[in-house]
């Protein structure tokens, strides 16, 4: 028996050794790694954390990348400094998740002069010359906003409130971000068109739970008479829910205030299934594999699409099951 165990152990050790040896020869060596500088805009939300995790997993050493990740803490100046540093270091490629759309022209020009291709991920950049970057990949934020607004009209009709005065509290993401601008546009357009819809207030809350809580709490102290909260991300919604709870206001599928939330991270979907959030508008953060594929195509000299948008859905309680939520990656 002992001898058998010893034999087994020896066999296992041998397996491990050969396994390790195999890995060592297939793993790219230092000089063979493609160096990618990634300027992530921050870590403000659950969406953002999922996005960073997706990028880190996709651009791993095993896959042949050395990822230099810089977190800009929601400040564009930090991003500009990070990108300039990547250029100085002579990285092979740069990925930017830009905090706001404007202000990118010079640094992208510098990257271009250094012949370093740039991929824009998540939000977009507003530059006249699209040749300043290789490709942009993200969500159709305008479509997300339009879907939310269409759903809201239908829901008010269903509740028999189509003709009522509707007061909307609007929580906005970081000003100047594509996701803020494009999610804001459809709701502002419809408020302009419909005489019975109005904004109780519009607040920037920087996509964070803390800010979402603070502004809604302070607002409800002065004016609790609201019908809808249109919140441009889940974390601000979570903050708003806490403020609503404290104010003793009911919300969700069976409550008074209608809650619309963007991102559809797992916790928000769970609340939606429980009837506490009315509508989750999906925004997919799992761009890592898509960016990796783009880089591979570029390296192989294939032609690259200029803009890539991912497919997304909207969810109400009726569209969800626990199984579906548990199977989601973020
Ligand atoms: O909705 C929010 C994040 O730009 C899509 O940024 C992104 C947004 C996302 O902080 O949660």
Can you characterise this structure?
- The chain has 330 residues and is an alpha/beta fold.
- It folds into 2 domains: 32-137 and 285-299, Rossmann fold; 141-283 and 316-326, Response regulator (Rossmann fold, 3-Layer(aba) Sandwich), CATH 3.40.50.2300.
- It is 45% helix and 18% strand.
- It contains 11 helices and 12 strands.
- The longest helix has 25 residues, at 2-26.
- Beta-D-fucofuranose is lined by residues 44-45, 47-48, 122-123, 177, 179, 207, 233, 262-263, 283.
Number of domains: 2
Question: What percent of residues adopt helix (DSSP H or I)?
Answer: 40-55%
CATH superfamily of the largest domain: Response regulator
In this structure, how is the largest beta sheet organized?
A: 6 strands, parallel
User: What fraction of residues sit in β-strands?
Assistant: 15-25%
Number of strands: 12
Topology:
Elements: H1 2-26, E1 34-40, H2 46-58, E2 65-71, H3 76-89, E3 93-96, H4 105-113, E4 118-121, E5 135-138, H5 141-158, E6 166-172, H6 178-193, E7 197-204, H7 209-222, E8 228-231, H8 234-247, E9 258-263, H9 266-273, E10 279-282, H10 288-299, E11 307-309, E12 314-315, H11 322-326
Parallel strand pairs: 1-2, 1-3, 3-4, 4-5, 5-11, 6-7, 6-8, 8-9, 9-10
Antiparallel strand pairs: 10-12
The structure holds beta-D-fucofuranose (GYE).
Residues 44-45, 47-48, 122-123, 177, 179, 207, 233, 262-263, 283 line the site of beta-D-fucofuranose (GYE).
